[in-house]
Structure formats: C-alpha cells, structure tokens
UniProtKB/TrEMBL annotation:
Species, as recorded: Aureobasidium uvarum
Any Pfam family matching the protein: Sedlin_N
The protein, known as: Sedlin
GO-annotated cellular components: cytoplasm
GO biological process: endoplasmic reticulum to Golgi vesicle-mediated transport
Length: 123
C-alpha cells in the first residue's frame, strides 16, 4: 500500500510532502503511485480540507482533524494514531526553531528522516 502524507499551511500551501509505502507484511517502504495518482494526491487533500472547513464553520467545537483512509481494524487505527503522534512531536520541534518562517516549506532532512522512520515503524 502506498501513502501520501502532507502538511498544509494556513495559506493552503503544502509545507511538507512525503510519499512512502508500507514496511509491514513484507513491504519495502517504496511508494508505488501511478503518475496519474501522483498528480491527484494534492487535489484529493485540498478537496478533503474543503469539506473539513465546511464542518469547522458549522461546528465551533472542532479543533483539529485527521484525514485518513478509513482504517480497517483497531490495530491499523492504533498504528495511524502512533504515526501521527510521532510526526506531531517532530513537527513541533521543527517549527519551534527560531529560524523557521511561518508557512514556509519545511526542507529539513532531519524532519523528513523522522517522518520516514515513523512510517517505517508503524505503517
């Protein structure tokens, strides 16, 4: 299975993008998107965010939302949760850098490595 992970800024610009495949069940960790699917990934993410924004304005209690492809089991759901927790911790460390500019793309190889390590560990 191939995954597309992205972090979107407040101006709807991608701050970080990473494609990877599953490392579980004998996977090699390489994303296998067809060329047509690669171009559609950003479109799908932004379309999903449009729906989230519609719900956000209708519900004042919405704080944050995780968009994931419906996990099929509790084990898969837990793996996604742990992956997102690790990435969130790495993200906070990255943006707390005094040299980070808000809404600027993240090009840190350390952050990319931490996302890749979390993907390999949990997905």
């Amino acid at each position: 299975m191939s995954y597309y992970f992205t972090i979107i800024g407040t101006r709807d610009n991608p701050l970080f993008e990473h494609e990877f495949g599953t490392s579980k069940a004998g996977g090699d960790g390489i994303a296998r998107f067809r060329d047509e699917a690669r171009h559609m990934n950003q479109f799908i993410v932004h379309s999903s965010l449009d729906i989230v924004e519609e719900v956000q304005w209708g519900n004042n209690g919405l704080q944050s939302t995780l968009l994931a492809n419906n996990p099929s089991s509790a084990q898969t759901e837990e793996a996604v949760r742990q992956f997102m927790t690790d990435v969130y911790e790495a993200w906070i460390k990255c943006i707390m850098n005094p040299f980070y500019v808000v809404n600027a793309p993240v090009t840190s190889p350390v952050f990319r490595g931490r996302v890749a390590a979390a993907a390999k560990k949990y997905l």
